[in-house]
Amino acid sequence: MDKTIIIGKRGFLGNSLYKYLRTKTNCRLISFKDFKSYKIKVKNYSHIINCSIDLNYIKKKYDEKFDNDLKISRLIKGNKVKLIFLSSRKIYKSGPNLKENSKLNPKSNYSKNKLITERKLSKILKRRLVILRVSNIIGDKSKTKNLHNTFVDTFFKNAKKGLIFNNKFQYKDFISIEKFNEIVFFILKKNLNGIYNVSIGRKVNTNSLISWLNHYNKKKCRVKNVKGNQQSFYLNNNKIMKKIGIKNSISDLKNYCLKLSKKNFSI
Q: What average pLDDT does range 220-247 have in this prediction?
């Protein structure tokens, strides 16, 4: 396996990937600013994983000046290095068993921007591109910069105040940061290219996840029922799992959530 650049020095994903991959392969963690200023000799690396993102890319309509991945692709266009682009499950229409060729229906600026970037990168890099459509990542973000709140961030914020939400009929697709890191490692090891869903690949009832995350909470919480139509989904991850052949189970996710619960509620 060759050398890998991870871009995103201050964020949760970049730091988590680096801590995991540095024990298994030759990798380097840098900021987007350093990469953009040509302080890194790209030709010496086989892969770039971009975990950096512009806040305007998340919130506003698409503009090339906010697209870090597009800028990276143009800088590496003449090299052999591959780019791993972290896209989102939000580009799909909600529903069960979503495959890589399922109907796309992005609704937020963020998801629309991700799809636009996917298409631009595909034209520039062709087979030197890996697109990962990632489901909800479960992880501890307390020590890194957080640009926007995830399901887990919102849960712990409310639960520590004594409030949890009842999402009785809602299901989603979650994956632990540990499993995400492992999948990325095997993508590097096998030198894959193409589009892949990265997820647990099964329905996870939202209330089940909440019960795992709340396991070590000693505070008596008030339960508030969620009203209205709650969007549910899960991704079909058969394509990537057949390529890398690792275990990816709900019991693994549960054990990770219990560990996260213990850490957060022992503070």
A: 88
Neighbours of 195 (CB within 10 A): 17
- What DSSP character marks residue 230? -
DSSP assignment letter at 168: T
Token pair belonging to 228:
């209205």
> Which residue, among 132, 130, 98, has the nearest Cα to 194 in the 3D structure?
130
Q: 222 pairs with which residues across the strands?
A: 163
Measured CA angle at 174 (ends 164, 198), to 5 deg? 160
Taking the alpha carbons at both ends of the chain, their separation in whole angstroms is: 40
Q: What are phi and psi of 15, to 5 degrees?
A: -65, -40
pLDDT for 147 equals 66
What are the two backbone dihedrals, phi and then psi, of residue 218, each rounded to the nearest 5 degrees?
-85, -10
pLDDT surpassing 90 at residue 254: yes
Q: What is the mean pLDDT of the chain?
A: 92
Chain Cα centroid distance, residue 264: 21
- Give me the count of residues in the chain: 267
